[in-house]
Amino acid sequence: MVSEEKKKRPRSSEASKSGRMDSNHRYPAPKAGAIAARRRPGQRGDCSVKEESASIASQKNIWKILDGHYPERISFLPVVSPFRFLVTVMLSASTTDKQAAEAAEKLFSVYPDPQAIASADVSSIEALIHKAGLSKAKSKNIKAMSAIVAESGIPETMEGLQKLPGVGEKTAACYVSEILGKNAVIADTHFVRVAMRIGFTDTVDRAASAREIRERFDESLWTRISMVLNLHGRTCCKPKPLCTECPVSALCPSSGCATGQS
Ligand code: SF4
Q1: What is the pTM for the complete model shown?
Q2: How do residues 92-120 score in pLDDT, each as one tens digit?
Q3: All structural domains of the chain with their residue ranges
Q4: Ligand 1 centre and the CA of 199: distance in Å?
Q5: pLDDT interval class at 246 (50, 70, 90)
Q6: Ligand 1 atom with minimal separation from the 253 CA
Q7: Which of 1, 83, 109, 222 is the most exposed place for a label (fewest CB within 10 A)?
Q8: Residue 241 near ligand 1, beta carbon < 6 Å
Q9: CATH T-level topology, domain 82-167
């Protein structure tokens, strides 16, 4: 059954376009004690969730509000070409998107394609991407990845992408959602923090957090949930959350957690 609201706003099945909670939502009933038992009080950026508040109904309402609060189109990194995007996402590990984009710009100004990067000295790549941090490891991975892509092209599945050097689950998910238009859960640090605070997940482990979202929400929502929670974590639900400015403060089980107001 599709809601009237959804009928009025026809969108494709892609989460980045749909993004509405509907009958596809399949969040299971929280297991008694499970959420409270798995949380680690006092953990950096974590506010313990009151289990009684983390009901399915409130989660649906939280999602509806957050979904409507943020723009339909959310992106954090520039897309010049699929290969450049993949490299930029690799560079974004443990640094800001701005630093990653600037490092990518510098790298591509000297080595414009996979063939050129594959033939370059690692030390030269390292110097060009230095500001993105972890440049030793990133330069080796980018060179090795470029050699494979120069030979065989960029894989088009999560599994294939994750076989490339330096490409983990988050990088692969970014690529398939942004470049291939498929749905994927992108579990970065912001996403994991917010998802747990609002009761969508009960873990700070990225892979487990992504798995829980995949299990609990329909695939058509995966990318949209990822982008909305990520943006909410950057702008409002920061490590020290701005609960008084938050659109879901009345429903969030962690509201006021950083100030002891909850
Ligand atoms: S109410 Fe506070 S903890 Fe909850 S989502 Fe908003 S900012 Fe985060």
Answers
A1: 0.78
A2: 999 999 999 999 999 999 999 999 999 99
A3: 4-74+185-245, 82-167
A4: 11
A5: very high
A6: 4
A7: 1
A8: yes
A9: Endonuclease III; domain 1 (1.10.340)
